Predict the 3D structure of the following.
Amino acid sequence: MLLCKVFKVLPTFTLAKIQELKNLEEEAKRNQSLKSLLLSPSGDFVISYYGNKSKMVALYFSSSSYERCTDFTFGLVEFYDKLRSDEESFEIVMIPLDE
């Protein structure tokens, strides 16, 4: 019964509205840049997976086919965990170079 009540309050979209949303999504994909992906429009910070805001960011470019990158990743995880346990506001954004 509760499930039915939830669906009653959801807005309904016309085909035109659905198409408009799809067009906006496609435009955002075409116009994205590293800056637009990492920065919030309201500030100079990134938002972590957990919802925390951080001004200190490391960009980690990696290729899983390159063994030294894979080895480095494990050390980076330990470094990240250490900083986070010291309550540092620090995030790592991994940018894979694999196709």
Observations:
- The beta strands are 46-47, 53-54, 56-62, 90-96.
- The mean pLDDT is 75.
- The radius of gyration is 20 Å.
- DSSP finds four helices and four strands in the chain.
